[in-house]
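Why does this matter for the project? Reviewers at the last site visit asked to see concrete outputs rather than summary tables. In response, this paragraph embeds two records directly. Each consists of the residue sequence and, immediately after it, the corresponding structure tokens. Nothing has been edited or filtered.
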Amino acid sequence: MSITETKYFGKISFEPESELEFPRGLPGFDGRKRFLAVTFPASEPLVYLQSLEDPDLCFITMPLLAVDPRYRLTVGREDLNLLGLPPASQPRIGVDVMCLTVLSMREEGPTANLLAPIVVNLRNRRAVQAIAPEGEYSHQFELMPAEAPVCS
């Protein structure tokens, strides 16, 4: 059992085999390659991606299919290689991989990044932020769209 100190959750105990490894890190966060997926029953379905190298770095995510049940995952050859998955086929969400979407809290309301989901190989815990084909998904998908004004 290992323990890490975090800014938002205090001390967290975890099994080393529960670590997620991002072989190339995350865009904009150089050197941050080891994370934990932290969940709490009171905040389900949220999943907090807590950096093990930076106690101040934590992403709020949620399962991608909770946002868009019809999401079509496309993972490029390089990402499949980094994940340790066969290059000839696409992984299945919930079977081969776990997919999380990073949430952003904006003044207009929360959004989800469907353009670049976090893809985790369930067998070896390797992860990448995969970029979806251009035009298919938004990096600011509104989770609670503004209501249309009511005519009087």
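We now turn to the second protein, recorded in exactly the same manner.
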Amino acid sequence: MERKGILGRKLGMTQVFTKDGKLIPVTVVEVEPNVVTQIKTVETDGYDAIQLGFETKREKLSNKAQKGHLAKANTAPKRFMKEIRGVDVSKYSLGQKLNVEVFEEGEMVDVSGISKGKGFQGVIKRYNQSRGPMGHGSQYHRGVGSLGTMRPMRVFKGKKLPGHMGHEAVTVQNLEVISVIPEENVILIKGNVPGPKKSLVIIKSAIKKSNVKKDKQELVSYETNEVKEDDADVKTAIDDENASQEVNE
């Protein structure tokens, strides 16, 4: 099955309710229109892919090579450009704009991003190792522990040691698209996705569950200006009662 994808920015997390009372935690991703800046084919590049440009930046921040590359697509300089492989390139044209409606509600997607950086951390936080006794008589608390045997008198490659944690490429697979809001360029994805707020994320069709599509969730909407008749009657009765009290006073 052909894949599709789009670039966006993670805005944060919230929760929505279905009409049957179910709570769903979702990540809000802002997807401004993406521009197809390059089309790669097997004949010219050895594989099929499209290159997407996302988020316009100032022209002075682009070099001559970037300006020439994007001029072919007749678009402004872009802050991010990423490839989406496995697509049907015959469905795309150079300079074409893709919006959030690329995906439908109920589809399964894989979301990639750069995880939050945690700095230099020990093995307990970094690898979830157990600590030693915390009493003052113990000489082992939060250390690494044994680094190996006496022979071959060296530390083997791959030994879990303290070091930099986070800020690495992470992909969370098989997430459900809960809602697509084209007028706000927003897509709601069930669960959490990698990275801090305002970070770049890449949304692609799920590679493991490409044929799975769940039923559309009927969400509760809180945006309405309509006044129910019962509420209007109650408001009128309260106003009449307040008016009569003022007259009696």
